[in-house]
Every structure is written in structure tokens, then in C-alpha cells.
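Quick one - first record:
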Amino acid sequence: MLTKALPLYSWFGLCGPANMPQAIVDKVAPIITEIAQRDETRKFLKIYAGEPFPGDGAALAKTQADTARDWAYFVKLADIAAQ
């Protein structure tokens, strides 16, 4: 029995190299957040039915973990074999 809806959306995040110095993260993150909130960014994303969802590294990690968990559930439900 299907117990939750299939999440039909996509997302992308900006990632840096492993062990990036926090000083660089702290400098770049507000710039990316500001770009995500610009009207022209919103207009561009709207063309593709998207919207900005800026957040920090912890928010991105949670989104990644939630997405992986959700799709693992549907793969199991559909009895799709690993390849």
C-alpha cells in the first residue's frame, strides 16, 4: 500500500570541495543567498516551475538525506533491483 506521495520535484545545491575552509564558506554563502533572492533569479526559476530555497550547508545535507530516504522507499515499494 502506498503510504506517502511521490515527491515530484527537483532541486540543486551548490557544493564546494571537501574540507573547504569555513572562512571561504562564510564569505561565499551570503553571496549565493543574495543571488538566489534576486528577481531575475526568481523569474528564471519560474520558467522551469522552480523557486529559490536558499539555506546553509545543514539545510542542503538534510534535503539530500530526505531525498535519498524518500526515493529508497519508492524503489523498495516498486521492487526495483539494484544494478
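second record:
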Amino acid sequence: MIFATGIAFLTSEYPLQERGRVLGIAVAAVYIGLSCGPFFGGWLTQHFSLISSVKITFIIFACPCLIGNFFSLYRGNLRSR
């Protein structure tokens, strides 16, 4: 569901001349992640622990989202003044 939504978003945002390149990059990123994910997850589990993969995932994804939300809210408060 998410992949189909992402493809629909990309096709609506990019002009016809750039769609092939953009869709190729999106599909390549998905399959690189699917190929590398088990390798890095296994490496983290073997060398550290199972919880390390959860902590790394949190750092990589949740922290930037939280920081981005904070700055977007802060910037919105400055505009309203």
C-alpha cells in the first residue's frame, strides 16, 4: 500500500520527461533496502544484541521525524506572530 502510494505521488509531482528516472530511483532504493536490510540486521544482532537493531532503527527514523516536527511547529509559531 505504501509503495503504491509513493509511486502515485511521484508520478503526480514530476513531469513526464523525468518520470522514468524518478521511478527507477524509487524502485532501486526499495530493492537496495530489501537486499541490505537482513544483512545489516543480522550483523547488528550477532555483534551487539537484538535490541540494538530496534535502537538503530529508532535513531535513523524517529529522531529526524521528531526534530523535523519540532522545527516545523517552531517555524509556524514564528509566522503567526
